[in-house]
## 1
Amino acid sequence: MWRTICVRLVQMALVLWLLATTVFVVIRLAPGDPTLHLALDPSLPPAARQLQVERMGLDLPLWGQYVTYLGGLVTGDLGVSMHEYPREVTDIIAERLPRTVALVVVATVAAFALGVVVGRWTAWRRDSHADRTVTGLLVFAATAFPPWVAYLMIWVFAYELGWLPSGRFLTPEVWRDAPVTVSSVFLALGATAALVAVGAVVAALARARELATPRAVVVISVTLVAGVLGVWAMHPARHFAADLLWHAMLPTVTLTLLTLGPAALLMRSAMVTTTNTDTVLYARARGLGERLVRNRHAARLALPPVIAAFALNLAGVVTGSLVFERVFSWPGLGTTFVDAAVAGDAPLASGIIVTYGVVLVGMHLLLEGAQWALDPRLRTSRVAAS
Amino acid sequence: MHYSWIRRAVVLAVASALLAACSSSQTPPPSGSDAPPSEAGDAGGDAPPFVYEVGMFADIAAENWWAYLDDADGWSGFVLDGSACQLYELTPPTSVVTPQLAAHDWPQPERDGDVWAVEVDLAGDATWSDGTSVTAADMVFTWQTVNGLELGGQWLSFYEPAAREAGLVTAIEALDETSVRIEFADEPGLGTWPMAVALAPIMPEHHWGPIVDGAADVSELLTTSGAGSPVCGPYEFVEREPGAFVRVVANEDWFLAGTSYTHYADGTVAVRNDARSIDERYGASSGDGADEVVAEYVTGPNADEVLYTLYSDAAVAVGALVDGEIAFLLTGPGLDPAAQDRLFDAEGVEVVANPNYTLQFLGFNLERAPMNDLAFREAVATVIDREHIAQTVMGGAALPLYTRMPSGNTAWFDDAVAEDITSRWRDFPNYGARLERAVEILRDAGYTWEVEPTVNGETGDLSQRGAGLTAPDGTPVADLELLHPTAGYDALRNTAGLFTAQFIGDLGVDVAATPLPFGELVSRVIDPSNLQYDMAILGWGLGNPALPTYYDMFWRSDAPLNIVGYASDEYDDAVARFMQTRDLAAAYDILWNELEPILDADLPYVPLFDTPVVEGYRPEEITFPYTEVLGGLGNQGGLRALVLAPE
């Protein structure tokens, strides 16, 4: 087992090195110069540009810049932003990442939770009118061009109906002289969501293992939600949290709808393959109700590929936020990357890509670990192979 | 039974949450138009403050003056400009130099031993927003910090314009609390004094001194937030949420508050402030229009605060202005035609268009043939129909330009000389006449064709494109490349590139119009020692409108921004005198009697067009004392020290 872990870690390091090197080469060799604005200002002497070139280390040969860059990566130093000179890239990423994660995690969890329900429902009514209608809508959601859907949602809900805000991620008038920071409220909201999620999982497990009656599960769940809502309702930062949630609603719903299509279709196709398995046949032979057979037995067999897709989607949507955030004026990592790329801010752009890489590779590693832990066949085959 | 239990529990939970939400209201309610509906009912209380709501579509990169000027970021400038004070200022809209901290009009430098020096008395009544006096020591501190920490960017243009000036600031010392002495290595021209060091912002030593002393390196100073720093301008930066908004609040103790400025057409400004016993008229009078008022206002600050809201792009920001979310939009690099149309069509939005201070041009690489031949350049300048490009092709979105000084800079523009220059290139009855004149220029210079361009004599249109142009020495003119920006970056210059290539192609030269990403385009053009192009369409922002030093930066033989390889002893001599004179009238004469005529004869550039700045504001929210200003209202930071609430 340790050998496998070591091999995976070495592979991970190699992938990240390859990514970092590719990013460095592509960005540094791309035309453009982050000090160009200094050269184009007729009121500035040439010394102004030269000074900035030296400060940013752009006067070093390319290999020298590469060594500095790699050395920084090893120590977790992604360098200094050129556009927001001399602010640390890690500082900027730490500021923007929670905003992206908040949007992506909520939307992905919601989409997959809904997707599992919708997918198993349609699979159980395979080839019915309801199945065809819902599956058609899901296919549309899965294949629609995301920015188009985003603009459509903005047009309908923000401009035509005026129900939801767009164009900015908070209301400045609300946040004027705020005693809390945006990041702290995001973190508090994230912690709340995590608490509720953990509660839901515990309740589900307790119910599945028959450690609690249905009534007890409902009471505990409702009490937990009510408690959380109550705490937030009395919290001095509730206006700020409400404002963030209000602004996050349209992008979150849109991203949820876009993610729901593939999730539900995957669940549906996985469920379809399980309906004729021996397990389901045996469950039916035992005289169990259709609902129980569907939710307890068929759905459980269909879940592993959906869980794998969920994990990868969680990482993938972070990268997909590049365009999405821009459309919704959501100043997360995606928007920051686009701005950095346009401004020729090589350290910030490459720092964000490397961060994306670390998230993706990390999620792959976690997924593999989870599969290893959950599926005894994998452990057996690996041990035999080694 | 089972489900009724659940229903009861859910109702109880929701009710308890709602009860808790309604029972406490410790936080001020939001007033924004898109605030959550549940919060809207909390509004009430005192009369609302006058908040000037401004939109922008790029975040600021600097939170203090040191960082802003160190990297010359324009968006930071919108927010931070006006919070500092200086000895003198360029007073909008005519950009006349008037005293700010100084007690009197700018004195002339005098020789003092080996150096040139100027001594300036401060009025002495200026204070920082925390009540501390602004002293000569603050100016010395600022100068020493810039030098000691080797700050760059715009700071260098204030203190060390050695590359473009005879003068060099060598020392700034405080003679006492209210007088300062500035030394120059050589006799300073107008570009050094007063147009550079006299306009340098001054920082409060009592606030920044300990920070500078404790800073391990320059980065520490540059990343320190300017929130809380005392200011001596009308507004104080107090708060920023990255990616969302920036807020500045009024400095109620601004020493220039309540000062009235009256700008006259002759180029002078009357300044009056009874509380400070000031009643003076500044600027050199041209003699015409001494009684004709161009603009008149009394300084605020009238808005209690200015709230800059950040939008992700121009289209969203324009939507916010149209919807009434903001009162004014800073347009930065400008709005595309679709966004401009949206402003024109919007109800409740007043649109103003002002001349810009830019020069869009066709540049020749004079190190390559045939661009190094004056006859070729003259033929090209003749055949390009600038009226057609600007008025017909661009639909009036640009103004044709024939001089290197845009007409929008009324203080420096000479109508008579400019008309002489313009008529040379503009006044042709039709395109055929223009083409025939260009062909004649080339033929007289010895050029020949395989197929000579011909014109339909009746319609005046092109009848036959030329082909196979051959230089006077018998060498066929090689295919040429015309670089220009992509349509995505700048649709107007992209269009100009396509049409210019077509016009030159009519002369019998194969010209490939090549659109390039802006960074790549500039990197091929910008280095005077390595010019990698034939012809290029680019644009310059022209800097300080009060003194057009760009004539020195762009066309002096060894100038760092001479990107065409132009070299003329006659021009170098004239521009040196232009930069060294200490008399604005003399500089003006040199510009129009020597610099412009020389450049118009030698044609290193063909000026193409200037683009007006189109902006919008909501009159029911704000009013401006004037709206006609070079570069637009945004170029003046949205006139935040002058903006008024509607009556």
## 2
Amino acid sequence: MKKLLFSVAGVLILSFTALQAEARPTIEELQKRAVLDDYEANVVFGYNIVMDSNRYAPRYAGNGLRCSSCHLDGGTRLDGFPLFVAGVYPKWRAKNGVRNSLEMRIRDCFLYSLSGVMPPEEAPEVLAVSAYISYLSHGQPIGTPPEGWGVPTLPETGADPDPPRGQAVYKRECVMCHGADGAGTAAAPPLWGFHSFNEGSGMNAVPRLAGFIWANMPMGKERSLTHQEALDVAAFLHIQHRPFDPREGKLKKLAEEIYHGLSRLFGKKEPVTPQAAR
Amino acid sequence: MSLLREALPDLSWRRSVDVRRELAAGLVGALLVIPQAITFAYVAGVAPEYGLYCAVFVGFLASLLGNSPMVGGPNTAVSILIGLTVLPFAGRGSPLYTELVLALSLMVGLIQLLIWLGRGAALFRYFSPAAIIGIKAGVGVWLISSALEGATGMAPMTVKFLYEKFYIVLAGWQDLVNPYAALVSGITIAAGLLLRVRWRRSYVVLAVLIGSIAGGLIYGWLGPVASDLELLGHVTLDAWPLQTPVLGPPHWLFLEHAIAPGIAIAILGLAQTLVIARDLKSTVTPELDLHKEVFAQGVSNAVGPFFSSFAGSGSFNRTSVALEMGARTPLSGMIAALAVVLIAWLLGPVLTYLPMPVVAGVMVLVGIGMIQWREIRPMMNWIDGPVLLVTLFAVVFLSLENGILVAVVASVIFFVASASKVKLAISHEGGAEQIRVTGNLFYASLDRLAKHLHAHPSEHTALDLSRVPFRDATAMEMIKRVEIERARSGGKLEVVEEGR
């Protein structure tokens, strides 16, 4: 009898917590409310930044992209770089070799993918996006990556990614929305050039880009490309011009170029002979 | 009728204006105000655009409606107080925070208009100059201490007493301080202090230039990640940033809590404005109307939020530069406001890369400029000195708004103390005593005279009150009592009032 009572109580409590978990208000509901508390206001601000970075975070956003260009559907789509990943931060990343807080990770997006100005970790824009990510992470596991995070890793195809083939695929499938010059249209963001992500961003890696393309592109016909086609398009995009990696100081790079140029002009012109090398 | 005259812009200066001088003063003023506007926006906790809008719209309206070469716009003390008031209610820099700043500014403007209707300008006469200088120096200390995080590349921190911050930074500098940020801010401050000797007017602009070049070299060489220098970011100016201040339930709740600080901000803004105006009235423009300046300040602060700008007030440093450049009419202020739009638009792409440690350096330079030994030294006497020191300590160790309260109380106390000094000249002539009183006789100053009169009940005394301009009921009562007492014990009190 006692056991039964306990189990009934347990079930009640469980269902109650489940109900509470369900009771998370949607963004639309929050936007309609007259009064928001600080957390909710921050979530809405973060949502706005994710959906329209240039309008709501003009101080730090830089190019023609917005967060939702890669984090599809405002960061809610599985296999489209979903944003409900607050549970895995802080975590160590090879990119900068330190343990990254969520805020530190967000400002990397401003610096690389949005090719803008790196905000401080405590910038209101960063904190707002952080709040939005926490809000999305409601009910997701803590400490382990959630289902559908990042993009799928494509299996070995047996052939190298080939840019010329990728160009053909691009002309067939992507030109409609992204434009022949890759500068984007009203329907889709720019893929290369000065208004796209820079060489330091995560999208500037062929396997990841290929996984994203295969799982999410072309919009409305997702997963219609073969793995090889996705890899080829990714390789084609990878070799295009884009803003360079901001981690390398511009002045330093300029000085290096000047030094190399000068040494080519005035230095020894003969190639290094085996004798000299010995 | 006179209210209407004060409320309408007085354009009589048109007839005697030297346009070229005003233009030069205006352009220099615009160059000066841009780094300050960005700095004070940072101090108030809002995006840099709001500071520039404040320089444009508050500056323009204050000049248009006032009738003096005083330059209005973003102000140190007002910005600090706005930041301190709003910070407990919203995340720094968030949309709600900005809305609250604008709502607060609107309230400040309306309070100032109420003060105008109540003829408050007269009251500020009793605000002792020593208290103003004390507040100014205290604000300087606050500014320097709030620049500390930016100058060392740290996140803003909240401490109870400002010296704790210096302790934290000194104790943990190896972990906390970004050496590149410290280097850039150090170069900015050092350049400013060195250049100040030679170029008293434009040293801040030059220091910003030098600091930015240093920061640019470091940033360019190491890149954003390795140097970790914070940049200002894109400043997107809108030529016509119309918006209606949002007044929803959270805003009303905030305003309810912010009434006392709001009054403090209104008073502090007006106090600075009126100190400048009083100086101008006695030196440059004798026809200046203090009430008109109060109105101009109130309207510009109340209208400013509709143009995305927070509250401001008259500026000591920019006004004195404008005067040195030969500005004599409000035209220079209006030109400065309009030139800000142009210069900020031209500089826009460069401003993006302005390192924040340079902004922090400007804060320190402005702070040092507010603590002027030249102003403090003449105050080191027994009446002004205590008021100044008490105010300074209250501002530094309590808070700005409490400091203002202390300043008012200290001014009143020392005013009363100095007013209650009466001089008794006692002489004896043929057995009769003569007392000549100089000063005001009232409840606070009566003590010595009463004691003296009561001590010798049987004497004949002639009390000469011809140099007593004012006596209150308590004094008359005392004299009457002494007269009765003397009549009872054989003495006599004779009140002499020559020339009355």
